[in-house]
């Protein structure tokens, strides 16, 4: 009984214990790390971080009730039927109970704080009184009326075609027939916008029918009268004597001047100040149901703009669907309000489901914000309401449609908010907006038949009869569909694989660099349409929208199946003063492409054949493509109109989508290439060698490229296998383990022939050796001694080298005895250095499978005895031997077991994802330029990190991991890796499914029994074959380096944000600041064989000439042959790091760096007692610093002088920065 009480009390303590940081929600650490980043969204008036919505969490039990203490005398009440049903519903309707709790916490933070609405109520009452007190203005000529208002400081925003002195209609004003709150606010459906944008309270003022005439649907007459009606209201509001205490501005949320509104904000500090509520009032003139304008005239097939001369008939006019739909929108605000109210009362979860959908959309740029917005969604809240109406009401079955898809039936009314949200995403992801038309079921018959709508535009007719997609480009809908599919993939995955709530609702997905494969910044200042039409301009409403409509439709047609989506992003129109008439559009837009990598980089676009039955097809094709189109005969005998894109390199081929866009924009929109900015060329430049060096390679006709390196490797394999009869054992396999042979080396591999070597400067003599593993057939003739095995390897190398040189004239093979640093005689250190006649270098090592068994025996010769008994037994292996065996085993497992498998997996990824290799190359270049590659981040670790971006990440034991979206270009992949490093909580580790399901490979690998005490690395990069995750990060990076890389990634991410401002300088991201180091060691670049790879290379280094000619000649004689892998700077760096590992940390760029950066160990900066073998050079501390005479401090001057002597000839100077 007592034991039972103890257990109960223990359980109660656990329940009442406050959660630690690691037990809280996974978003907490992200939010704290990003709190200084700025643009938080949808948080309840407090902290905002890096575009993620912050959710207020309460310190409560899950049930929301305080936890009570139970005693042995109290009985636990079983859950009631209602509670059991709630638990089951939380799992069935909301994916999981925790997901429901997150949604419940999110929704209140996304809505207005209605407790701050009393000032709004007072302001609306004052505004209502002001509108009803405006005196009547008798009808007058529009020009005369505008002059009268201009004297009051109001410019009437008339639109095209502007009224002229010959205009025979008049404008006037009468008090509104009805003043009504419309939109989301009266139904309490408003959702917080991005970037602290204010809530919009829409106020519809109905224009009296006496101000309108039956023919006002023609030539924008209604919009002219509407503009004057709104201007009179603006004059009354801003009247200092009779008006209200508020500021007014003309705004056009959608950018269409025909939909101009009046935004009114109470002055700050007044009684009606709406600062706490963060709201503004928008006055929208509307047309009532009693309007004399016949609704039939608003059909999409009608022509309501007359551009013909007086002698021509109206029958030749083209339809004006956009104009008619905009006019129709003036009649729908009240009807949409009533419909939304009906749905809210009909479906209890309607409001929450709509809120979730709008939050999801806002996080992806489908709404207002300070960042770029997707074209067409600047202010289209009615679309999201229409989607919900479609799900609840279904499609109108009485409307005949050409689509073969089945009509959507209404969903149940008892669905949860999450289920409604999922259904909306499913519709957006599956519906083909370009081909299928939607007519939402309505209480009345739809006014216009489906055949009246244009065939080349999307159609989504809501219950009020208006087409909600008339002004949205198809490319924007393609982007919406793509985003919906990605979110559904996230929500369909296992909860342990990814945090779906954060990805769906909290994370900001508006960043250009990670969202689109190709981003172009287009300046429209000099744009001029090749084929301009007055009719299309009047139909669109402005030259700006006409230009964007033509631009986007042309790009989408030109790219075809190369792109999944072609999106236009721009900043919404700014507010205009009352003296400004036209909406202010930004002259700069951004074009974002999401590529279909299977087709994006093809070289030829085929058009109609020569025998096409349509004689105009070839003419249209040539007219669209211009001088790029030509008639060609292909190998299969076909003759077709074609467009061929000529490229010279693989980098040029990845820019074919950009070339297409540039050509089309210049041809159809008159935009020169200088006004189109993209960032692929600067990224490519970081991976190219200087032209002075590559010209020498071309002159010597040296082999270059990854394919040439693979060919050289295949030739070496054939040469070695041809020697089977002359070797003691036959060669079974030769496996590459170098990034050069898996397409991920930073620079394109190039062979150095004898002729090119003599022509190259000394600072460009580096030849990268390609590591390979040679596996001989199994044999019992190998010795059972580790030292004997190493001796046999040397003998095998000597025999192989002799036979290779005999069979291949010009080939040079040298046996490398070992590493002078390694003192163990049981570690694999021998290798065979091979230089082919073509100038390729290889470094071969021998793998013997029995070596691992012997190492395990040296470590533990009695594995069958339990450890606790083994400790009590006398004898045992020598600790020094165990330590040496552990070191040798670590090298063996990494080099011979994991490296070949890693190589094959990465090579397969390069073939599977075209952008993966380029992403890895950029990331390696970036890590090297910041002095952490190889020493602190191995090339294998960087490749696994990049694989996480393409394959996704998960936890061990999960099924297929979540894959967000595989980048289609290396630039997008690089940005995603930087984002991963910026946000990754490396304390939790990451699992990357690099190898796929390979049960056999996993069984072959030994259990990792290496001691954890020697591990200093903190990055845990787990794979199927490396569950522990430290195979490539065992020694580094440690916590200091990991935080340093995270800081560099954050700074790089901030630099990438400049893409939206057009001021992104790619070289800045690869420039490493040196002021943070305690001292800098300068090297002589002329003596560095890899200096030509420097990110900021100075060509004058190899242009210099020595003072004495004979010295230069002697130097050339000393380096007349190629030395593969010879890099004195890297050797010096490793020696200094090893000798002074307890004194300072050293950093270096292995890709041509000419400086070392050093940071003193902070523990040595303070005086400490003198100790023998203190592991650092010390000097007695100054009397002022320490009272004890035995205190010593670090002798920095002596250490730096010793380093300078140690690197004499290579080190040119040492500078102390701090």
UniProtKB/TrEMBL annotation:
<dbReference type="Pfam" id="PF03813">
    <property type="entry name" value="Nrap"/>
</dbReference>
<dbReference type="Pfam" id="PF17407">
    <property type="entry name" value="Nrap_D6"/>
</dbReference>
<dbReference type="Pfam" id="PF17406">
    <property type="entry name" value="Nrap_D5"/>
</dbReference>
<dbReference type="GO" id="GO:0034456">
    <property type="term" value="C:UTP-C complex"/>
</dbReference>
<feature type="domain" description="Nrap protein">
    <location>
        <begin position="350"/>
        <end position="507"/>
    </location>
</feature>
<dbReference type="InterPro" id="IPR005554">
    <property type="entry name" value="NOL6/Upt22"/>
</dbReference>
<keyword id="KW-0690">Ribosome biogenesis</keyword>
<keyword id="KW-0539">Nucleus</keyword>
<dbReference type="GO" id="GO:0006364">
    <property type="term" value="P:rRNA processing"/>
</dbReference>
<keyword id="KW-0694">RNA-binding</keyword>
<dbReference type="Pfam" id="PF17404">
    <property type="entry name" value="Nrap_D3"/>
</dbReference>
<feature type="compositionally biased region" description="Low complexity">
    <location>
        <begin position="66"/>
        <end position="80"/>
    </location>
</feature>
<dbReference type="GO" id="GO:0032545">
    <property type="term" value="C:CURI complex"/>
</dbReference>
<feature type="domain" description="Nrap protein">
    <location>
        <begin position="513"/>
        <end position="669"/>
    </location>
</feature>
<dbReference type="Pfam" id="PF17405">
    <property type="entry name" value="Nrap_D4"/>
</dbReference>
<dbReference type="GO" id="GO:0003723">
    <property type="term" value="F:RNA binding"/>
</dbReference>
<feature type="compositionally biased region" description="Low complexity">
    <location>
        <begin position="36"/>
        <end position="46"/>
    </location>
</feature>
<keyword id="KW-0698">rRNA processing</keyword>
<dbReference type="InterPro" id="IPR035371">
    <property type="entry name" value="Nrap_D6"/>
</dbReference>
<dbReference type="InterPro" id="IPR035368">
    <property type="entry name" value="Nrap_D3"/>
</dbReference>
<feature type="domain" description="Nrap protein">
    <location>
        <begin position="913"/>
        <end position="1072"/>
    </location>
</feature>
<dbReference type="InterPro" id="IPR035369">
    <property type="entry name" value="Nrap_D4"/>
</dbReference>
<keyword id="KW-0687">Ribonucleoprotein</keyword>
<comment type="similarity">
    <text>Belongs to the NRAP family.</text>
</comment>
<protein>
    <recommendedName>
        <fullName>U3 small nucleolar RNA-associated protein 22</fullName>
    </recommendedName>
</protein>
<feature type="compositionally biased region" description="Acidic residues">
    <location>
        <begin position="47"/>
        <end position="61"/>
    </location>
</feature>
<dbReference type="InterPro" id="IPR035367">
    <property type="entry name" value="Nrap_D2"/>
</dbReference>
<dbReference type="InterPro" id="IPR035370">
    <property type="entry name" value="Nrap_D5"/>
</dbReference>
<dbReference type="Pfam" id="PF17403">
    <property type="entry name" value="Nrap_D2"/>
</dbReference>
<dbReference type="GO" id="GO:0032040">
    <property type="term" value="C:small-subunit processome"/>
</dbReference>
<feature type="region of interest" description="Disordered">
    <location>
        <begin position="1"/>
        <end position="81"/>
    </location>
</feature>
<dbReference type="GO" id="GO:0006409">
    <property type="term" value="P:tRNA export from nucleus"/>
</dbReference>
<feature type="domain" description="Nrap protein">
    <location>
        <begin position="1075"/>
        <end position="1214"/>
    </location>
</feature>
<feature type="domain" description="Nrap protein">
    <location>
        <begin position="696"/>
        <end position="911"/>
    </location>
</feature>
<dbReference type="InterPro" id="IPR035082">
    <property type="entry name" value="Nrap_D1"/>
</dbReference>
<feature type="domain" description="Nrap protein">
    <location>
        <begin position="201"/>
        <end position="342"/>
    </location>
</feature>
């Amino acid at each position: 009984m007592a034991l039972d009480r103890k257990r109960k009390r223990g359980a109660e303590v656990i329940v009442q214990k406050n959660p630690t940081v690691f037990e809280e929600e996974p978003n907490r650490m992200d939010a704290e790390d990003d709190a200084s980043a700025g643009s938080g969204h949808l948080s309840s008036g407090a902290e905002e971080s890096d575009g993620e919505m912050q959710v207020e969490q309460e310190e409560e039990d899950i049930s929301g009730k305080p936890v009570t203490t139970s005693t042995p005398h109290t009985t636990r009440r079983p859950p009631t039927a209602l509670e059991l049903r709630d638990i089951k519903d939380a799992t069935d309707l909301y994916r999981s109970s925790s997901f429901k709790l997150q949604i419940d916490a999110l929704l209140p933070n996304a809505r207005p704080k209605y407790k701050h609405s009393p000032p709004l109520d007072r302001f609306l009452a004052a505004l209502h009184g002001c509108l009803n007190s405006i005196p009547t203005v008798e009808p007058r000529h529009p020009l005369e009326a505008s002059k009268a208002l201009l004297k009051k400081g109001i410019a009437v925003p008339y639109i095209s075609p502007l009224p002229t002195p010959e205009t025979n209609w008049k404008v006037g004003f009468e008090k509104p027939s009805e003043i009504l709150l419309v939109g989301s606010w009266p139904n309490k459906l408003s959702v917080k916008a991005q970037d602290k944008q204010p809530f919009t309270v829409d106020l519809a003022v109905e224009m009296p029918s006496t101000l309108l005439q039956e023919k006002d649907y023609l030539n924008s007459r209604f919009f002219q009268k509407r503009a004057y009606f709104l201007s009179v209201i603006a004059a009354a509001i801003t009247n200092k004597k009779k008006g209200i205490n508020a500021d007014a501005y003309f705004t056009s949320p959608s950018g269409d001047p025909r939909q101009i509104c009046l935004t009114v904000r109470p002055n700050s500090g007044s009684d009606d100040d709406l600062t706490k509520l963060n709201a503004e009032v928008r006055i929208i003139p509307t047309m009532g149901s009693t309007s004399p304008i016949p609704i039939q005239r608003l059909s999409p097939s009608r022509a309501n703009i007359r551009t013909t001369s007086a002698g021509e008939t109206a029958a030749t006019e083209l339809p004006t669907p956009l104009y008619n739909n905009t006019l129709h929108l003036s009649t729908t605000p009240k009807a949409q309000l009533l419909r939304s109210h009906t749905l809210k009362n009909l479906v209890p979860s309607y409001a929450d489901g709509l809120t979730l959908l709008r939050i999801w959309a806002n996080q992806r740029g489908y709404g207002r914000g300070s960042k770029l917005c997707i074209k067409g969604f600047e202010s289209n809240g009615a679309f999201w309401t229409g989607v919900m109406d479609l799900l609840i009401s279904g499609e109108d079955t009485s409307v005949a449609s050409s689509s073969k898809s089945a009509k959507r039936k209404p969903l149940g009314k008892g669905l949860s908010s999450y289920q409604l949200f999922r259904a909306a995403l499913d519709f957006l992801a599956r519906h083909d907006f370009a081909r299928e038309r939607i007519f939402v079921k309505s209480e009345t018959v739809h006014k216009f038949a489906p055949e009246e709508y244009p065939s080349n535009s999307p159609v989504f007719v809501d219950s009020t009869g208006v087409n909600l997609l008339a002004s949205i480009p198809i490319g924007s809908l393609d982007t919406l569909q793509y985003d919906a599919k990605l979110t559904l993939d996230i929500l369909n995955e296992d909860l342990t694989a990814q945090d779906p709530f954060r990805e769906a609702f909290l994370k900001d997905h508006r960043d250009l660099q990670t969202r689109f494969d190709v981003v172009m910044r287009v300046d429209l200042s000099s744009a001029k349409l090749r084929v301009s039409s007055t009719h299309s301009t009047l139909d669109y409403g402005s030259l700006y929208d006409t230009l964007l409509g033509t631009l986007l439709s042309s790009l989408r047609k030109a790219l075809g199946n190369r792109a999944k989506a072609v999106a236009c992003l721009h900043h919404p129109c700014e507010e205009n003063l009352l003296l400004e008439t036209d909406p202010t559009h930004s002259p700069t837009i951004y074009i974002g492409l999401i590529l279909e990598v299977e087709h994006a980089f093809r070289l030829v676009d085929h058009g109609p054949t020569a025998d096409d039955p349509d004689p105009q097809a070839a003419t249209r094709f040539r007219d669209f493509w211009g001088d790029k189109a030509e008639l060609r005969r292909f190998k299969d005998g076909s003759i077709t109109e074609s467009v061929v894109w000529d490229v010279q390199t693989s980098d040029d081929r990845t820019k074919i989508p950009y070339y297409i866009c540039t050509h089309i924009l210049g041809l159809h929109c008159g935009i020169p290439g200088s006004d189109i900015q993209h960032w692929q060329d600067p990224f490519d430049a970081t991976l190219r060698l200087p032209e002075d060096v590559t010209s020498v390679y071309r002159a010597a006709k040296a082999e270059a490229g990854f394919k040439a390196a693979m060919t050289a490797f295949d030739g070496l394999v054939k040469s070695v296998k041809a020697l089977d009869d002359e070797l003691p054992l036959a060669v079974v396999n030769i496996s590459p383990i170098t990034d050069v042979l898996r397409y991920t080396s930073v620079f394109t591999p190039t062979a150095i022939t004898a002729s090119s070597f003599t022509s190259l400067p000394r600072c460009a003599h580096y030849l990268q050796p390609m590591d390979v593993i040679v596996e001989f057939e199994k044999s019992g003739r190998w010795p059972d001694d580790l030292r004997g095995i190493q001796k046999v390897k040397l003998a095998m190398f000597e025999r192989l080298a002799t036979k290779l040189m005999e069979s291949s004239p010009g080939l040079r093979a040298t046996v490398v005895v070992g590493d002078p640093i390694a003192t163990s005689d049981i570690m694999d250190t021998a290798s065979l250095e091979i230089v082919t006649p073509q100038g390729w270098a290889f470094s071969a090592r021998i793998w013997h499978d029995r070596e691992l068994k012997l190492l395990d025996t040296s470590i533990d010769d009695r594995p069958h005895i339990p450890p606790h008994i083994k400790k009590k037994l006398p004898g045992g292996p020598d600790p020094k031997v165990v330590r040496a065996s552990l070191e040798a085993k670590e090298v063996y497992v990494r080099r011979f077991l994991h490296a070949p498998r890693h190589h094959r997996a990465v090579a397969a990824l390069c073939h599977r994802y075209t952008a993966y290799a380029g992403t890895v190359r950029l990331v390696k270049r970036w890590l090297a330029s910041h002095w952490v590659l190889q020493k602190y981040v191995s090339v294998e670790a960087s490749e696994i990190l990049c694989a996480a971006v393409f394959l996704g990440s998960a936890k061990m034991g999960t099924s297929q991991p979540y894959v967000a979206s595989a980048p289609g270009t290396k630039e997008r992949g690089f940005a995603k890796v930087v984002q991963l490093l910026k946000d990754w909580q490396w304390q939790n580790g990451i699992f990357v499914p690099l190898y796929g399901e390979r049960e056999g490979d996993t069984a072959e690998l030994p259990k990792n029994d290496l001691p954890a005490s020697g591990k200093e690395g903190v990055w845990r990069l787990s794979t199927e074959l490396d569950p522990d995750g430290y195979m490539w990060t065992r020694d580094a990076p440690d916590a200091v380096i990991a935080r340093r890389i995270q800081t560099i990634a954050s700074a790089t991410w901030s630099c990438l944000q400049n893409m939206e401002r057009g001021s992104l300088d790619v070289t800045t991201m690869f420039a490493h600041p040196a002021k943070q180091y305690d001292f800098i060691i300068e090297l002589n670049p002329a003596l560095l064989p890899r200096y030509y790879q420097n990110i900021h290379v100075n060509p004058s280094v190899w242009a210099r000439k020595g003072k004495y000619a004979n010295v230069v000649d002697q130097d050339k004689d000393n380096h007349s042959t190629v030395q593969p892998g010879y890099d004195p700077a890297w050797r010096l760096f490793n020696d200094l790091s090893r000798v002074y590992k307890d004194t300072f940390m050293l950093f270096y760029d292995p890709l041509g760096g000419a400086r070392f950066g050093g940071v003193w160990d902070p523990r040595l900066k303070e005086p400490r007692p003198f100790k023998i073998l203190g592991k650092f050079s010390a000097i007695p501390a100054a009397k002022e610093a320490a009272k004890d005479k035995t205190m010593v401090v670090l002798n920095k001057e002596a250490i730096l002088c010793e380093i300078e002597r140690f690197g004499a000839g290579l080190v040119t100077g040492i500078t102390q920065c701090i």
